[in-house]
Amino acid sequence: MLTAKTSMSEGRREILTIRADYALLSELREFVRVAGSKVGLTEAERDKLVLAIDEAATNIITHAAKTHPEAIDCRCTMDDLDQSIVCELVYDTHDHFDPVRTPKHEEIQKRVQEFKRGGYGLFLMHTLVDSIEYKREGNRSVIRLVKRHRE
Amino acid sequence: MSEQNVNERFDVREAETSVSGIITLELSGQLDAHTAPIFERYLEERVRGKGMKHLVLDFSKLDYISSAGLGVLMGLIEEIRANGGDMRLASLPDKIYHVLDLLGFPVVFKIFKTREEAVSSFANG
Hints:
With 151 residues, chain A is α+β, with helices and mostly antiparallel strands. Helix content of chain A is 36%, strand content 31%.
């Protein structure tokens, strides 16, 4: 089977489940883009949210060989009054990947000047959304990203 | 995911360049963790296999880039420059330039508004 995904709506919450596979990142991005449009995020704001989610999901999949998540749930909860959206990436793992540690801007500048090819995803995640939290739900990890309409 | 489906999402092809010794590559579609390996293999073939060292990447048809795609650029730029060449970027859509700018990539990459400007810049070193 090439793709494994399901999606459902629960009121103002929409959920997409994908197999932990880079091939499905584009479907995850489209899901988040559509959800972001429903709370009035501008195109630029949606672009930022989508990239942040992509970076978080890529990180989860990259470490999948070690942490063994088979699927990733993306739960998007939309708040019309606040014009904000909360997107949670939920996945099975016994390991803790805590994305709350923010790389400093100076660290990123140094990496760029040393031509390092990786280590930019976490910085982008933190820069592109309003807040990021990490928590555990039993054996599942939850990365929670919040984006608000401002522009 | 078949190779065909991957190629529907991302493509890179060589474009006509009026200046000999300079290769222009047109990128289109979405460059993410899934499609970045295709781009990397393509670049490596040209840089390591064919010895090309003066490259212009035209981003005008690229819709999306993540850090995985940017990593491909970083992975080869040092080697290209060590061989006396360079890889220059042109025609970046605003949303893609914004991502590069956030990370400070314009400090290490020469970026031009048009492909023609990027090509002619090689005449000035």
